[in-house]
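[Automated response] Your request has been received and processed.

Submitted sequence:
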Amino acid sequence: MALLQVIKDVCATVGVTMPTSVFSNIAGNRTMQEMVSLANEMAQRIAYDQRDWQALRTSTTVVGDGVAGSYPLPENFKRLMLTSNMWRGTYTEPMTFVADHDEWIRNNRSEGWDSAIGGGSWTFSGGQLHLAPVLSVAEAVSFAYLDKNCVKLASGGYGDVFQSDADSFRLDERLLKLAMIYQWKAQKGSAYAEDMSTFGDALAVAMGHDQPAPILIGRRPISESSRVAIPTQTLYFPGATP
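Generated structure:
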């Protein structure tokens, strides 16, 4: 569903005249300016603040040259996912994250890197990924992250804001519509509790279906995050002695 249709549906609900175009003559249309601003804000809230949506999950790989210890983050990088790690070369354990910058500096000066566990350490600083020890030539580090570009552009590619009537939200457009309705009413001082509740219900359903249930083979789950409950009662079979 294109942005124009989403905004038409929102306008029909909140009692605003429906547009024939959103961006045409937008400089002279305060209502459409507010609608676009609201669409961008609510699209980003849904995309960034709710969960690590599968549609926005992606990954990248940096390759060493034997010299560089720092690498720029991808242009579409929003944040790491809750379970993201840095995976170096053929190591089967992730690299160690150093959260404290003073610790990173101390280790860097003392060359106190433990390269035997997970292939070393990493941190973020100044919008860059820092790795230690330095990657050797052609050695790779891979990691997963959340794509900030939640809008599919009609002109091609993706972006983090709407730019034309034909652009579309990469996630569920109904979520965007419902979010815009309750937030518009809230901003205008109208009753919005029921609309916010409707959005919350739809969001909960979307989040639930975004992470499929694990498939069980026999008694062993495919996903390590799944567990099989063991009944506590004792079962007796015909002919067995209690």
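Summary generated for your ticket: The chain has five helices and 13 strands. The two ends are 64 Å apart (CA to CA).
If you did not submit this request, please reply to this message.
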